[in-house]
Amino acid sequence: MKKSLKKILFTVLTVFAVFFVVACGNKEDTKINKEEVLQKSAEAYKNIKSADMLINLKMEPKKSGQPMELTMDVSITLEPIAMKMSMDIKDQNVKLNSFIKDDIMYIQNPVDNSWIKQALPEDVSNQFKNMVNSDDETYEVLKNNLDKVNIKEEGGNYIISVTKDTDFLKEAIKKQNSKVNMAGQNLDLNVDNVTLEYVVDKETYDTKSSVVAFDTNIQGQDVRMTVDSAFSNVNNIKEITVPEEALNATATPGK
């Protein structure tokens, strides 16, 4: 189970490293000032204090090997940082429930439903904070590459996409990923062929959904990773409540 804790943190931080690079970007067509829309989107992002996210992650091997698909149902608050996550691994009949609150991570054993808890390493806590405070960097990256972004207006939303000349996104993800290196995990997410499409509310500039895809290498295997996310309940989560049985779980020493 100690390895499971690390794997969950690895998965969550990988997904969030990608998401926070692209979440506050916005562009537009010739009728609207691109930089203005981008700036308003960044401002809206700064005001997000909580949200629900439904994340579908697919990893498809380039050559041999079995594809992997998992779904993460996440609720998160940023002040203070707390998270509830239910992760389903498709075709394996595995459901993993976990919480992060007050710098403690709780994880439920999917075999017997028992709970264990472990202090969240300070560097991991700081990594979350670094990611959610990356909006200024992201603003600059996207502002400097407005010509590479396409946008169309549809149903009260902006549909933003970047499908070619995406080396700037590759570098942005690489830079963001450098903030998420976990001790003992050697997280080095080198990406290529990045594409993204996301939907932004025209009135509020909040991101409603996104699809990010890229090639990478995981444990020596070349894969195509696709992260499909939907966001809801923005700023309506008051508190993440950890179940009593998890609070009373046996503590597991960290590494």
From TrEMBL:
<dbReference type="Pfam" id="PF20316">
    <property type="entry name" value="DUF6612"/>
</dbReference>
<feature type="signal peptide">
    <location>
        <begin position="1"/>
        <end position="23"/>
    </location>
</feature>
<keyword id="KW-0732">Signal</keyword>
<dbReference type="InterPro" id="IPR046720">
    <property type="entry name" value="DUF6612"/>
</dbReference>
<protein>
    <recommendedName>
        <fullName>Lipoprotein</fullName>
    </recommendedName>
</protein>
